[in-house]
Amino acid sequence: MELDKLIKLLKDNKELNVGVRLGILLGLYYTRSAWFKELLEATRLNKAELYQHLKILHKSGYVEIKYIPTVEGKRLKVFITKKGDELIKQVVELLREK
């Protein structure tokens, strides 16, 4: 059953047991990257909460965090990694199966 596979996949990747982190990765799967400010607006978390979630995803290898110089100063941009991409691809495939 696909539901069993999906639950096992999420249990095996404990970092994704929090819906916000799964949502961030799903969004990055489709957009490939996002500015910190965009993620703040999308998640409606405060800066500290969002940064904590991103640190956990980064430590697990699902996202890469880069500070990019802009006219307004350094800005944080988040990119999905190959590991994150492969995991979310599995989640999406399991959600599509009937």
TrEMBL record:
<dbReference type="InterPro" id="IPR027395">
    <property type="entry name" value="WH_DNA-bd_dom"/>
</dbReference>
<dbReference type="InterPro" id="IPR036390">
    <property type="entry name" value="WH_DNA-bd_sf"/>
</dbReference>
<feature type="domain" description="Winged helix DNA-binding">
    <location>
        <begin position="20"/>
        <end position="97"/>
    </location>
</feature>
<dbReference type="Pfam" id="PF13601">
    <property type="entry name" value="HTH_34"/>
</dbReference>
<dbReference type="InterPro" id="IPR036388">
    <property type="entry name" value="WH-like_DNA-bd_sf"/>
</dbReference>
<protein>
    <recommendedName>
        <fullName>Winged helix DNA-binding domain-containing protein</fullName>
    </recommendedName>
</protein>
